[in-house]
C-alpha cells in the first residue's frame, strides 16, 4: 500500500502541474523514491516525508537561488530533499509528529 500511495501521490502532482503549466515539474525518479520510502515505512510516513522535503527544498532552494543570483525558473532537484526527509521519517517518523502534536496541544 505504501509503495502505491507514494508513487501515485507524486505522479498526481506531476500531472496536475503539467496540465496547469505545460512543463515537467518532477522526474520519474522522485515517484520511485517516494514509492520505495512508502514500501519501507508504510503509507503513514508519506505525509510527514512530503511536508519535510517540500519545506526543506523550498528554503534551501530560495537560499541557493539568492546566493547564486539565478532566475526563479531554475530547476532544483527534489530527490535529495526527498531522500533526506524519508531517512528522517524512517528513523524518527513516529516521534516527531507526536512531539509536535503534544507541544501544539499544550
Count of alpha/pi helices: 5
The average pLDDT is 89
Distance linking N and C termini: 34 Å
Q: Strand-and-helix sequence, N→C?
A: HHHHH
Strand content: under 5%
**Structural class assignment:** mainly alpha
Rough outline: globular
Number of DSSP-assigned strands: 0
The largest pleated sheet is described as: none
Helix content, binned percent? over 70%
Please characterize this protein's 3D structure:
The chain has about 110 residues and is mostly helical. It has one domain (about 1-105). Helices cover about 75% and strands about 0% of the residues. Helix 2 (about 30-40) packs parallel to helix 4 (about 80-90) and helix 3 packs across helix 4. The longest helix is centred in the middle third of the chain and has 23 residues, at about 45-70. It is globular. The model has no long low-confidence stretch (mean pLDDT about 90).
Short structural summary:
With 106 residues, the protein is mainly α.
Feature tags:
77% helix; mainly alpha; 5 helices; 106 residues; globular
What topology emerges from the helices and strands here?
Elements: H1 2-21, H2 28-41, H3 46-68, H4 79-92, H5 95-105
Helix pairs in contact: 1-2, 2-4, 3-4
Amino acid at each position: 500500500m505504501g509503495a502505491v500511495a507514494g508513487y501515485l501521490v507524486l505522479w498526481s502532482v506531476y500531472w496536475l502541474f503539467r496540465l496547469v503549466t505545460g512543463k515537467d515539474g518532477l522526474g520519474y525518479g522522485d515517484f520511485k523514491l517516494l514509492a520505495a520510502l512508502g514500501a519501507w515505512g508504510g503509507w503513514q510516513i508519506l505525509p510527514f516525508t512530503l511536508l519535510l522535503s517540500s519545506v526543506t527544498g523550498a528554503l534551501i532552494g530560495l537560499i541557493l537561488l539568492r546566493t547564486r543570483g539565478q532566475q526563479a525558473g531554475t530547476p532544483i532537484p527534489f530527490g535529495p530533499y526527498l531522500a533526506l526527509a524519508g531517512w528522517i521519517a524512517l528513523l524518527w517518523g513516529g516521534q516527531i509528529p507526536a512531539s509536535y502534536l503534544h507541544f501544539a496541544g499544550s
